[in-house]
Amino acid sequence: MRICIIAEGSYPYVVGGVSNWVHNLICHFPEHEFVLFSIVANRSFSAQFKYELPSNLLEAYEVYLNDSEWSTKGKKNRRLRLTNDESAAIRSLLFGTDIMWRELFDIFQKPSFSINDLLMGEDFLEITKDFYNAEGQNLVFSDFLWTIRSIYLPLCQTMKCELPKADLYHCVATGYAGVVGSMAKEIHGGKLLVSEHGIYTREREEELIKATWVESVFKDIWIQQFRKMSKLAYQYADIVTALYPYAAELQVDLGCPEEKVIVTPNGVNADRLLNLPGKTSGDEFESYINIGAIVRLVPVKDIKTLISAFKFAKEQEPRLKLWIMGPIDEDPEYAQECFDMVMDLQLEEVVFTGMIDIRDYLGKMDYTILTSISEGQPLAVLESFAVRKPVIATNVGNCSGLIVGDNDDYGSAGIVLPAMAVSKIANAMVELAKNRALREKMGEIGYRRATVLYNLENTMQKYTEIYDSLLGRDAKKTDGKDEELNSATK
Amino acid sequence: MAGIGVKLNRMFGRKSVFSEVYGAVYSSATTIAPMILIIGSLLLVYQIFGFDTISYANRALFFCSLLYVFVFSLIVTSIYNTLFSKYLADKTYEEKFGDILPCFYTGLFLCIITGAVFAIPFYVYEFIVGGVDIIYVFTTYCLFIALTLTYYAMIFMSFTKEYKKISLYYLYGMLLMFFLCWLFISVLSIEKTFSVVLALTLGLLLIATLEILFIRRCFSENSRNYSGILKYMRKHWKLMAANFMYVFGLYIHNFVFWTTNMRMVVVNTYVCCQPYDLATCLAMFTNIFASVVFIVQIENHFAGRYKEFNESVIGGKLRNIEKQKSRLFRMLSQELLSLVQFQFVVSTVLYFLAVVFLPRLGISGLTMEIYPCLAAAFFIVFLMYAEVLFLYYFDDTNGALITNIAFFVVTFAVSLLVRDLNPIWYGLGLLAGAFTGWSVAFARLRWVERNLDRHVFCTGKLIKTVNQAMPSAMVYQASEDA
Fold this sequence. Notes:
The structure holds two protein chains of two kinds. Chain A has helices spanning 17-28, 84-95, 101-108, 115-119, 122-135, 141-159, 175-188, 200-210, 216-236, 245-253, 303-316, 332-344, 379-386, 399-405, 422-434, 436-453, 456-472, 477-480, 483-489; strands at 2-8, 33-40, 57-64, 69-70, 168-171, 191-195, 239-242, 261-263, 289-294, 320-325, 350-354, 367-370, 391-394, 414-417.
């Protein structure tokens, strides 16, 4: 069967948890043909793959949120007049009530349709004026108009995309990926599966709240737009998966029908991490308490808080050494800021390894740390558990559930702290550094939890059942879901 | 016009009849002074140096030489007039002052070439077929080029708003002309018509030189971007065409009557129709006074209201924008109505003065039969021109072009039809063309008002357009890489 994976800004352009998950998923199902549809920022990222694509991944497609308009009909603006139905569809999109998505898909999939002609057209201007009178009468109209245009431009680019045909569309997020998946299902038929690793809408909300590039009055308009896109994906999806129960609750709150939601936790391949080399006499790890951070150097991982906390911890426990293990090229500016911070703080025991095979390092760590400000169900934590290493993590996403335990009584496999709490993180680093017995006990708890409850085989088995239910059986079964599937996943 | 605008505000602001008249005289004097100076100087020369003693043939040749020089130098510079003004305004807005001097040089070159392309064959024909003295022909050609340069340089001088300086340079030029006329005619005893042509040439060259030196002082930075204006010409060709059509339309009716039995052929080269041409000149002067005042009014009142509208677009709420738009067009209507009223009064007074006094100056007969219809026509022409100026304000180049094409075509067509009618109806061609142009411009202004939102908010592109088919979305295919 032909499965189209739809991803936004992850696989195979960025090395990380979600990308690894997608890669493992494709590799796990050699019997299926996969097609990849990626939503990327612009053409500079085109075909910049960081993974060797599996042999059953036959084609890769891209759409760019920031792209030119390609037209053989000359460069002049043409006066676009929308029909009444088209105008009503665009209006419903802006106002957000009973959005006429089917009609919108038809509009944007017309070969000759021009985004410039729409967004710079009179009809869109009139609709925006009505929306302004309803929602933003006290705002500067020019700013409002251009904000609306900038909000809908990436959505328009997405909806104009060339859609590959598949039997199943598997979106790795809602947002623009969810829109593509829904549109593909509407136009080509087939099934739609949405698997959320983080809750896309909530993550965008958090980013917007902190963002300085948009005025606060417009943040709500942006947030509402993301909610509309997520709701579309939930409505069209046959099945929606979440990594943990709280995420499932959030999905329902955001408009996902409860009966569609299945919890499918992440899984780790513990066998792959067996018998990793530990510290050896005379190596650079031996005389230190080694703290590993399996992270990309990007702002969401909050490396700066980690470095600050390490500075304080180092003052209390001189044996500490911090290994930041992950690619440094995703956000070069942020990475340079981190390097500069380490130099300014004169921290000689902070090592940036760059992109590595964690099997070379993880066994030599005493414990690992994750100071992200946003997470889903991080594979980095599960990998640490698989090697019997406790984890210090911030209380974001499902980190608390993994470390303390959601549905078991195994105990705590690490320490959970508030995000950005530098002194608490430092204290936790020192606590684990000074208590070997505690580290070992937590490590064992983590190993048990990972191998019993977050086993990759279990995860893949669940997806096998999900795929079978969507591909191999009657479509109507997805309304109530297969009971066997229910009992296996919840 | 900002410089005189401030002074005018003070004059008009005093709100008395005297101040209104004084203000009107001042604005006219400073904007049409150059034209008045040249024509006045020539009339004085005509009187002082006894041109009525010159043979009829020489006088006719002299008259036609000057007529052709004035008319065709205006037509040549009309091609570039508006476009260069726009280029200057845009470069000033972008603060790229270094582009102005190279643009000036490019335009200078273009004007000379454009003039020469038409003038050289014509003057060669005058020499060969007309048998006119080569020195006289060459001097007339130089006069044509000098006047073209003078008109061209005035575009840049006007942009600096140094109207008093322009008038002063013309005064110097005409003083030189007077002096040289006296020197050539009274001292050196050179033939009168040639003396005046030569003196006028040198006087205009002095004016052009002074203007060019002033422009070089004002815009001393040179970015060497000589081709910038050429790209503008490609992009804004409609602006060039619109102005050319207007100016050509102002004279096409004359050209039509140069083909009638009333025409005078001089040295087998020049063709003119003196009664009709003189009537045209008188009709133009009867009405031009009011249009000059109007142009200043735009600067003083409408520009401010337009600025308020722009500010509301940039930083205002929607209801403010709608309110400012209404105020803007209300003022536009008021300005046009004021112009009609003012021009009607002034033109009527001047018309009656002309009808009473011109015959006493020897202008009568056929000229005075043709004059009334042309006076009415020019009344509407300048109203039409006012509307075209408003269209330029709203960046409606298409509207201006359509208006001026309509004006030109109807003027030409109807002039052809009325050639055989009674002379009192000779001006119907221009009248019909002006009325057509005025109607088209008026309808266009109403259209602009209805579509101003589209023009303000829907112009341009949100994303760059690439003129080719979209590349395939597929960036990888396993079979190719296996």
